[in-house]
Amino acid sequence: MSLETKVGFFVLLGLAILGVSIMKLSDVRLEKRYTVYMVFDDIQGLNNKSQVRIAGVEVGQVEKVELQEGRAKVTAKIKGDVPIYLNAVVRVKLIGLIGSQFLDLNPGTPEAAKVKDGDTVYGATTRSLSDLIDKMSELVEGKNGKPGIGDDLKATMSNLRSVTDSLNFAIGMQRDEIKGIVKNLHSFTVDLKGLASDMHEITSEKKADIEMAITKLRSVLERVDDMLAKVQRGEGPVGKLLSDKEMGEEVKKTVSNLKDTSESAKEVLGRFTKIRSFWEFQARSVPGANAVRIDGGIRLQPRDHKYYYLGVSNAGDRKDEFKNEGDYEKKTTINAVVGKDFGPLTVELGAVRSSGGVGLKYYPFKFWVDKNRSNPWLENVELNAYAYDFPRDEVRGLAGRERRLKGPQYNVGAKYGVTRWLKVGAAVEDLGEVRQYNVATHLVFEDRDLAYLFGFVSFAR
After folding, report:
1. 333-359 burial, b if ≥16 CB within 10 A, otherwise e?
2. Using one digit for the tens of pLDDT, what is the confidence trace for 21-70?
3. Are strands 33-40 and 120-122 parallel, antiparallel or unpaired?
4. Of all helices (H) and strands (E), which one includes residue 428?
C-alpha cells in the first residue's frame, strides 16, 4: 500500500469520526419523528430537552417551551413508530422525589383517532410542592374562620395550665389536712411499737407451741435435703437437666443465642440514639436583586464524618417569583444532599436547588490548627463552591425584562464560624451569567440546644 493511500485512508477515517461526533453533540437523530403540541396550565419548571416517557420508557423529547394565551405550550418530538391517540393524557412528573422533570404520557386507546404530525393534546394538572405547603399551612392555621391544629394546641396548653393552677390551689387549701395525716402516721407507729411489746409477751407465754412449730419446720427442711440429694444423683426431671451433658449444652446454647440477640438489638437501638440532628437557617441579602432570601433545613449526622441534609432555598410563594428587577432565583427549591468529610475537604452530592449538583467545602487551616494546638479560631474558616442545574436553558426574570440563562450555575463563597451556632459569610452566585453578590447570616441549632433554649424560656416565664 502506497503512502498516499495510507494518508487518504486515515483522512477518511478522521472525517467519519468527526461527522459522528458533530451529529452526537448536536443531538442529530436519523430516526423518523413527528411533532405533537401539548398544552398545560402549569408545567412546573419543565425545561427544553426533557424526556417524554411511556411506562418509564423514553419515546421522545421536549423541543420547545413557550407561553401562548396565558398557558404553556410544549413542542415535543415523538418517535415515528410510537402511536398516540387523541384521548391521550400527559402529566409533568419528577425523576425520583426531587429530580428533574419529564413528561409522563399515557398514549390513550384505539377507540379515539390517532394523533398525526402537528396535532395538539392537553396536559393534566399535577399538584406542585407549593400546593402541598399551602394545604399544610391551612391545616395548621385554619381557613375561613375555622380553627386549625395550632389553635387546638394553644387551647390544650391553656387548659393544662388551668388544671395545674387548680391543683396547686387545692394542695394549698388541704395543707392542714396533710398535717393531720402525718400526725396520724406518727400515732400509728406508736401503736405498732406497743403491738411488738404484746407479741413478746405472747411468745413468752406460748413457748411450747413455738417449739412444736420449730420441730415441724425441721422435718420440712429434712425433706428438702432429701430432694436436693436426688437432684445431685440425677434423679427426677430437674436432676436429669443438671446431670445430662447434652441437655446442659443445649441450654447453654439457648442462653448464648438469647445473649447474642439482645446484644444485636442493643447495637441497633444504639445507632438510632447516636444520630445527631441540626436545624439550620440562613438569611442572604442580595443587593443586586433588592431582596433578602431565606433558606432552612435539617442536617442528620449518624457519624462524625458523614451527614444528610434536607432543606429549602429561597422559601416563599411562587407568585412572588422574579418580582424585582435583577431577581433570577426561583422560589422554594429543594436541597437534598449527602455529605462526607475527607480531611479538610467536605464533598456534597445530590439535589442542589431542585437540580442535580455537587458542592465542596474546604477548611484550609484545619490540619494546621490540629497539629499546633493554637489559634483555634482559624479552624472555623470555610471556603465553598457549588455547581448545579447543568441542563439549564430557560428564560427568567421580571416580565418585560426577562433574560435567557444557559449552562450550569456556579457559586463560590466563604464563611466564618463566629460561635458554635452563628456563621457569617459572603458569596458570588451564578458566575457564568448574572454574577450576583450576597452576604449571609447562618444559624445552626442542635436538638439539645433547642431543648436548653425552650427550658430556659419556660423557667423565665
Report:
1. bbbbbebebeebebebebbbbbbbbeb
2. 655 554 545 578 899 999 988 887 788 888 899 998 999 989 989 988 88
3. parallel
4. strand 422-429
Q: What pLDDT is recorded for position 459? A: 47
Task: Give the phi and the psi of residue 368 in degrees, each rounded to 5.
Answer: -65, -40
User: Mind listing the pLDDT tens digit for each residue in 238-249?
Assistant: 666 566 667 667
Percent of the chain with pLDDT over 90: 25
Closest-CA residue to 61 (of 81, 40, 75): 75
| Counts of helices then strands in the chain (DSSP H, E) | 9, 19
Q: What crossing angle do the helices spanning 236-243 and 207-232 adopt, rounded to 10°?
A: 50
Q: How far is the C-alpha of 251 from the C-alpha of 195, rounded, in Å? A: 50
How far is C-alpha 310 from the geometric centre of its chain's CA atoms?
5
Report the alpha-carbon distance of residue 300 to residue 298 in Å, rounded.
7
Distances (CA, A) of 10 to 13, 16, 20, 23, 190: 5, 10, 15, 20, 118
Q: Which of 355, 337, 362, 339 is nearest to 408 (CA)?
A: 355
Considering only 110-119, 190-199, 319-328, which range has the smallest mean pLDDT?
190-199
What is the Cα–Cα distance from 144 to 122, expressed in whole angstroms? Answer: 33
Contact (CB, 8 A) for 82 and 65: no
Q: Rounded to two decimals, what is the model's pTM?
A: 0.43
Closest to 383 measured CA to CA, from 414, 342, 351, 360: 414
| DSSP 8-class letter at 330 | P
How many residues are given for the chain? 461
CA 395, 130, 424, 356 torsion-angle sign? negative
